[in-house]
Amino acid sequence: MEKKLRDVPDEDFLLLEHQICFSLHAAARAFNGVYRTALKDLGLTYPQYLVMLVLWEHGELPVKQIGDHLRLDSGTLSPLLKRLESTGYVERRRSTHDERSVTARPTAAGTTLREKALATPRRIAEATGLPLDRLLALREELDALTARLDAATT
Predict the structure, then answer these.
(1) Suppose 106 and one of 43, 98, 110, 112 were both cysteines; which one would form an S-S bond, judging by CB atoms 3.0 to 4.6 Å apart?
(2) Where are the alpha helices (DSSP H) in the chain?
(3) Domains of the chain
(4) Is the pTM of this model over 0.90?
Protein backbone atom coordinates (compact mmCIF):
# COMPACT_ATOMS: atom_id res chain seq x y z
CA MET A 1 0.00 0.00 0.00
CA GLU A 2 1.35 3.39 -1.00
CA LYS A 3 1.95 5.83 1.83
CA LYS A 4 0.44 9.29 1.29
CA LEU A 5 1.99 12.53 2.50
CA ARG A 6 -1.07 13.30 4.58
CA ASP A 7 -0.62 9.97 6.44
CA VAL A 8 2.78 10.99 7.81
CA PRO A 9 2.67 12.90 11.12
CA ASP A 10 4.10 16.45 10.91
CA GLU A 11 6.67 15.59 13.60
CA ASP A 12 8.15 12.86 11.38
CA PHE A 13 8.89 15.39 8.65
CA LEU A 14 11.30 17.20 10.99
CA LEU A 15 13.58 14.19 11.36
CA LEU A 16 16.86 14.63 9.47
CA GLU A 17 16.73 11.04 8.22
CA HIS A 18 13.44 11.84 6.45
CA GLN A 19 14.76 14.88 4.57
CA ILE A 20 15.21 14.11 0.88
CA CYS A 21 17.09 17.40 0.54
CA PHE A 22 19.65 16.13 3.04
CA SER A 23 19.99 12.81 1.22
CA LEU A 24 20.66 14.72 -2.01
CA HIS A 25 23.10 17.01 -0.20
CA ALA A 26 24.98 14.05 1.29
CA ALA A 27 25.11 12.31 -2.10
CA ALA A 28 26.40 15.50 -3.74
CA ARG A 29 29.15 15.78 -1.11
CA ALA A 30 30.08 12.14 -1.67
CA PHE A 31 30.21 12.75 -5.43
CA ASN A 32 32.42 15.79 -4.85
CA GLY A 33 34.86 13.60 -2.92
CA VAL A 34 35.05 11.08 -5.74
CA TYR A 35 35.40 13.86 -8.32
CA ARG A 36 38.14 15.52 -6.24
CA THR A 37 40.21 12.35 -6.57
CA ALA A 38 39.32 11.75 -10.24
CA LEU A 39 40.05 15.35 -11.28
CA LYS A 40 43.28 15.71 -9.35
CA ASP A 41 45.39 14.61 -12.32
CA LEU A 42 43.59 17.12 -14.54
CA GLY A 43 44.23 19.97 -12.13
CA LEU A 44 40.55 20.90 -12.09
CA THR A 45 38.02 21.40 -9.35
CA TYR A 46 34.54 19.96 -9.85
CA PRO A 47 33.00 23.37 -10.77
CA GLN A 48 35.85 24.01 -13.23
CA TYR A 49 35.25 20.57 -14.73
CA LEU A 50 31.59 21.44 -15.26
CA VAL A 51 32.56 24.64 -17.08
CA MET A 52 34.95 22.69 -19.29
CA LEU A 53 32.23 20.11 -20.05
CA VAL A 54 29.97 22.89 -21.32
CA LEU A 55 32.75 24.44 -23.41
CA TRP A 56 33.87 21.08 -24.83
CA GLU A 57 30.28 20.36 -25.83
CA HIS A 58 29.30 23.78 -27.20
CA GLY A 59 32.54 25.59 -28.04
CA GLU A 60 32.63 29.35 -27.63
CA LEU A 61 29.66 30.67 -25.67
CA PRO A 62 28.59 33.88 -23.98
CA VAL A 63 29.27 33.67 -20.26
CA LYS A 64 25.54 34.08 -19.61
CA GLN A 65 24.78 30.92 -21.60
CA ILE A 66 27.45 28.98 -19.72
CA GLY A 67 25.77 30.13 -16.50
CA ASP A 68 22.38 29.04 -17.84
CA HIS A 69 23.70 25.55 -18.63
CA LEU A 70 25.23 25.21 -15.15
CA ARG A 71 22.59 27.11 -13.17
CA LEU A 72 25.27 29.53 -11.95
CA ASP A 73 25.13 33.31 -11.71
CA SER A 74 27.90 35.50 -13.11
CA GLY A 75 29.24 36.24 -9.62
CA THR A 76 30.03 32.55 -9.20
CA LEU A 77 31.00 31.84 -12.80
CA SER A 78 33.38 34.77 -13.39
CA PRO A 79 35.98 33.65 -10.80
CA LEU A 80 35.82 30.09 -12.21
CA LEU A 81 36.50 31.39 -15.71
CA LYS A 82 39.32 33.62 -14.47
CA ARG A 83 41.01 30.64 -12.81
CA LEU A 84 40.56 28.52 -15.94
CA GLU A 85 41.99 31.36 -18.00
CA SER A 86 45.01 31.64 -15.70
CA THR A 87 45.70 27.90 -16.19
CA GLY A 88 45.57 28.39 -19.95
CA TYR A 89 42.48 26.22 -20.54
CA VAL A 90 40.01 29.00 -21.39
CA GLU A 91 40.13 32.26 -23.27
CA ARG A 92 37.63 35.00 -22.53
CA ARG A 93 36.81 37.72 -25.06
CA ARG A 94 34.72 40.82 -24.84
CA SER A 95 32.22 41.11 -27.69
CA THR A 96 33.02 43.72 -30.31
CA HIS A 97 29.27 44.27 -30.79
CA ASP A 98 28.37 44.65 -27.11
CA GLU A 99 31.19 45.35 -24.67
CA ARG A 100 29.01 44.13 -21.77
CA SER A 101 28.97 40.65 -23.29
CA VAL A 102 31.90 38.29 -22.70
CA THR A 103 32.39 34.95 -24.40
CA ALA A 104 34.58 32.04 -23.31
CA ARG A 105 36.07 29.23 -25.32
CA PRO A 106 38.52 26.41 -24.71
CA THR A 107 42.10 27.09 -25.78
CA ALA A 108 44.27 24.50 -27.51
CA ALA A 109 45.43 23.37 -24.05
CA GLY A 110 41.80 23.20 -22.92
CA THR A 111 40.95 21.06 -25.93
CA THR A 112 43.91 18.77 -25.21
CA LEU A 113 42.70 18.48 -21.62
CA ARG A 114 39.47 16.98 -22.96
CA GLU A 115 41.39 13.91 -24.13
CA LYS A 116 42.79 13.43 -20.63
CA ALA A 117 39.28 13.79 -19.17
CA LEU A 118 37.67 11.09 -21.31
CA ALA A 119 38.04 8.41 -18.63
CA THR A 120 36.57 10.56 -15.84
CA PRO A 121 32.84 9.86 -16.39
CA ARG A 122 33.48 6.11 -16.49
CA ARG A 123 35.50 6.31 -13.23
CA ILE A 124 32.66 8.17 -11.55
CA ALA A 125 30.02 5.76 -12.88
CA GLU A 126 32.05 2.79 -11.64
CA ALA A 127 32.44 4.43 -8.21
CA THR A 128 28.65 4.46 -7.79
CA GLY A 129 28.50 0.68 -8.04
CA LEU A 130 25.29 1.01 -10.04
CA PRO A 131 24.66 -0.56 -13.45
CA LEU A 132 24.38 1.90 -16.34
CA ASP A 133 20.61 1.49 -16.73
CA ARG A 134 20.09 2.40 -13.03
CA LEU A 135 22.38 5.42 -13.36
CA LEU A 136 20.47 6.66 -16.40
CA ALA A 137 17.12 6.11 -14.66
CA LEU A 138 18.36 7.93 -11.55
CA ARG A 139 19.53 10.88 -13.65
CA GLU A 140 16.13 11.02 -15.38
CA GLU A 141 14.35 10.98 -12.01
CA LEU A 142 16.59 13.75 -10.66
CA ASP A 143 16.06 15.83 -13.82
CA ALA A 144 12.29 15.41 -13.44
CA LEU A 145 12.52 16.30 -9.74
CA THR A 146 14.49 19.44 -10.60
CA ALA A 147 11.88 20.46 -13.16
CA ARG A 148 9.04 19.98 -10.64
CA LEU A 149 10.89 21.96 -7.97
CA ASP A 150 11.64 24.74 -10.46
CA ALA A 151 7.95 24.85 -11.38
CA ALA A 152 7.00 25.02 -7.69
CA THR A 153 9.10 28.17 -7.17
CA THR A 154 7.73 30.16 -10.10
Answers:
(1) 110
(2) 10-13, 20-39, 46-58, 63-70, 74-86, 108-117, 120-128, 132-152
(3) 20-121 (1.10.10.10)
(4) no
